[in-house]
Design goal:
- The structure is a single chain.
- The protein is of the alpha+beta class.
- The protein has ten helices and eleven strands.
- The protein has two domains: 157 residues, Ribosomal Protein S5, domain 2; 118 residues, Alpha-Beta Plaits.
- Strands 1, 2, 3, 4, 5, 6, 7, 8, 9, 10 and 11 form an eleven-stranded mixed sheet that branches.
- Strand 9 and strand 10 form a beta hairpin.
- The longest helix has 16 residues.
């Protein structure tokens, strides 16, 4: 393909349809989760530099306040340059994914930067890129490809399924986020045991019965997150009153969702949602099968899209 001067990447959010805590290992919680990409994305623009340094400018959703040492997009760029001995990049991240909502926005940005750097410097070693993603965070490896997958372990064990379920989600989220670390700490302190859902939900998908699968959607972290932010419980109650085929919380919160089989039903539910916070109607998608959105005024060599 050849290297390019500019790459443009759509970094998509994810939703955990199930999230089972199945144990601990070396201080990490082990997960078994069904995760799906949704059509909500941050936009990332990367431009080549002539030195090994990288810098990231964040825009929107309060992301401007993220300290550089805590910015996963910058960490990803620096790790990429170190691993592949490339120059760096000037990176702009335009946020659309709410922060602290459990939608994987930080991981999506890291994955998007890795993909963008690979485009900039014509790096075809996707095994190396996946290895870097694994080091950067539990969701980053999934976010490199996106789609529909079972995520196990710390997030590194992925089993992808070829067909993304056709479903629509009414997403609801407030202004406050939930700290992932605080949520897991609270989960441990509560000392509760919950029945696993992931395997049974997969059986529903395998049979082609979305409603059966959706009845099993849920998240072992919900009670802990709700204790930290009671608004989550109120949001789930409001969503459940809209007669969805399933609902739950994604990640460690604070966003919650209700599932509907059609866009029309999801839009109807959005019009009648009586909870607090903002809402959005989203569709489950496979980023690899989405059409590229091209700028008709851009030169071909300067256009790089994640599709």
């Amino acid at each position: 393909m050849g290297a390019m001067n500019t790459a443009r990447i759509n970094a998509y959010a994810k939703v955990n349809l199930t999230l089972d805590i199945v144990g601990q290992e070396e201080g990490y919680h082990l997960l078994d989760s069904l995760v799906v990409t949704v059509d909500l994305a941050d936009r990332i623009v990367l431009k080549r530099r002539k030195d090994p340094l990288s810098q990231v400018a964040m825009h929107g959703m309060g992301s401007e306040q993220i300290p550089p040492e805590e910015n996963n997009a910058l960490r990803a760029a620096e790790a990429f340059s170190a691993r592949f001995q490339t120059d760096g990049a000037n990176i702009a991240v335009y946020k659309n994914i709410p922060m602290g909502a459990g939608l994987g926005g930080s991981s999506a940005d890291a994955a998007g930067v890795l993909l963008g750097m690979a485009k900039l410097y014509d790096i075809a070693d996707m095994g190396g890129v996946f290895s870097l993603a694994e080091e950067l965070g539990s969701d980053v490896k999934f976010q490199i490809s996106g789609g529909f997958a079972r995520m196990r372990g710390r997030g590194e064990r992925l089993q992808f399924y070829p067909d993304v379920p056709e479903m629509w989600l009414l997403l609801a989220y407030g202004k406050e986020g939930v700290s992932t670390a605080a949520c897991y700490k609270k989960f441990d302190a509560r000392g509760e045991n919950f029945a696993p859902r992931t395997e049974r939900a997969l059986e529903g998908f395998a049979s082609g019965n979305l409603e059966w699968a959706a009845r099993l959607f849920g998240n072992h972290l919900t009670a802990a997150a709700t204790e930290l932010l009671p608004e989550i419980g109120e949001t789930l109650k409001a969503l459940g009153a809209l007669s969805p085929i399933g609902c739950g919380m994604t990640g460690s919160g604070s966003a919650a969702y209700a599932v509907f089989p059609t866009r029309e039903l999801a839009l109807w539910a959005q019009s009648r949602f009586e909870g607090k916070g903002r809402t959005a109607v989203l569709c489950a998608v496979d980023p690899k099968k989405m059409k590229k959105l091209r700028n008709p005024y851009a030169l071909d060599e300067d256009e790089g899209e994640r599709s």
